[in-house]
């Protein structure tokens, strides 16, 4: 999703230990940590920031990565507003999140079971909800994909037993993957200024002289 995105500057918010921009060829890349304190060492310059108040100028970023950032915030819509602010016109945002309508999400809602996912079920942002937010902020969904169809397991043995579900998931239950990744483009409607027509072409009409003749009658 990022390999053919062109521009000048790309930013990844969160998970700086994973270089999700490695396939992109932009000359400048920034990686930020979204929690207070020092960031984990990744061999790159890493900023510590609040995703609800990004320290970037308006319309200064061409590509913005948000891996599992919305669901880690109590105000995810504000994060999208910030994304819309800092992105250039026709800039792209790529977001990943957990799908609440999956086997993973269903397990999290079963009473008595210890949660396995790092994000609470009530904080997970479903894809239809995210698409509604995109429309409100003039984002246009470009592409997306689901993944991780096997049920959550704690051992490698059971992961191997359920591996067939990952290969069949895209075909039989494509919207039930535990994780989704979606890409959207910031659209800006162009304005056309209509001013007064100072110079108008004058249409010259040739007039013909008409001579009316008739009988002269006296009174």
UniProtKB/TrEMBL annotation:
Domain Methyltransferase type: 46-95
GO molecular function: S-adenosylmethionine-dependent methyltransferase activity
Native source species: Paralcaligenes ureilyticus
Record-linked SUPFAM superfamilies: S-adenosyl-L-methionine-dependent methyltransferases
UniProtKB keywords: Methyltransferase, Transferase
Annotated protein name in UniProt: Methyltransferase family protein
GO biological process: methylation
């Amino acid at each position: 999703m990022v390999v053919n995105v062109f521009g000048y500057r790309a930013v990844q918010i969160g998970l700086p230990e994973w270089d999700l921009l490695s396939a992109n060829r932009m000359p400048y890349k920034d990686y930020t940590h979204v929690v207070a304190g020092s960031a984990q060492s990744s061999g790159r310059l890493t900023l510590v920031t609040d995703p609800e108040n990004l320290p970037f100028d308006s319309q200064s970023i061409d590509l913005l990565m948000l891996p599992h950032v919305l669901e880690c915030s109590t105000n995810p819509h504000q994060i999208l507003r910030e994304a819309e602010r800092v992105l250039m016109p026709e800039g792209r945002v790529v977001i990943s999140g957990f799908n609440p309508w999956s086997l993973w999400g269903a397990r999290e809602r079963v009473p008595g079971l210890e949660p396995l996912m790092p994000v609470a079920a009530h904080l997970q942002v479903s894809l239809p909800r995210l698409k509604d937010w995109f429309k409100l902020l003039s984002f246009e969904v470009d592409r997306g994909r689901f993944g991780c169809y096997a049920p959550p397991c704690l051992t490698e043995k059971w992961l191997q037993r359920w591996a067939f579900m990952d290969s069949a998931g895209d075909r039989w239950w494509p919207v039930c993957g535990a994780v989704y990744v979606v890409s959207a483009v910031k659209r800006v409607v162009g304005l056309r200024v209509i001013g007064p027509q100072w110079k108008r072409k004058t249409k010259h009409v040739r007039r013909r002289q008409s001579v009316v003749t008739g009988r002269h009658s006296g009174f």
